[in-house]
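Run log, item B.
One chain of 319 residues. Sequence copied directly from the ordering sheet:
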Amino acid sequence: MDYSVVAVAREDDSAVEEPLRVAVVADRLGYREVWAGEGPTWDSFVLATAIGRATERVALTAGPVAVSVREPFGIARGAASVAAVTGRPVGVALGTSSKRVVEGVHGVPRVRPAAAMEVSAAAVRGFLHGEPGEPVVPGSSFRRRLEPPGGPLTVAAFGDRAIATAAAHADRMLLDLVSPEQVRMLRAKLDAAVERAGRSSPPTLAAWLPAAVDPGPASLTQVLGSIAGYLTVPGYSDMFEAAGFGEAVELARTGADAATLARALPAEAAGMVGLVGDRDAVRARAEEYAAAGLDEIALVPATAGDPGGERTLTALRPA
């Protein structure tokens, strides 16, 4: 199993500089790659640049960035710019984000997101491999001046159409907050889509998973809060209801806030879609994910009560 580290995944009330602390810890402990997620607080390319300047060796991936908000050339230019400034390989991850973010924060319509992802992934893949001297876009009089960023193209996918897009265009497919059972199902869908696409080898399969080794109450609450937003998402709500957390799912459907939902979820919910417990339990759970077909775990370390995720990232550091 390969491990990477997510410096920032989703909005919470942690300090705005916490992603930089996580990245510095990951770099010092020898992790290969750090993801700079994007949301209402951080621009992923700016954060990736800041991480590159604060660390010594980690490769960088910016995103997922929302394809309804950022156009393909701008995405590839952002990655190449970060690579030029940091001297590191820089990948980019694409996602569809949510209506709450795309329309509620950016003020643009989230229309046919799966189709937007398909168009964006095909275009970004081409732009990421453009060489200096070529037109910045076909037919343009402007020429590329930056080297290709050198990192992978990742597509965040869950639905069938997004999986087909990943199978056709991505170097890596990304899942988020999934159980081993979901990994097994999605791995099978990805392999089938790769076969239909006629590719000789599949994209690697990665998942962002919340992680907390020997968590204190604050860390556990933070993990449960990250789960709360998924209680009404199709494919997740059924899983939580089947596991006996139907009361929390119903509460989420009433519009309860994340803090209320986190209090309603029992502690064991954190371990359904993440790596939570003592070191041996977390390692055993990681083996379940590997057996289900996952190639890479992108650790989203709890930082509440564990600044920079130091305890968790130390316990799971690469051998």
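Observations after the first pass:
- The domain at 2-212+272-309 is CATH 3.20.20.30 (TIM Barrel).
- The chain has one domain: 2-212+272-309.
Flagged for discussion on Thursday.
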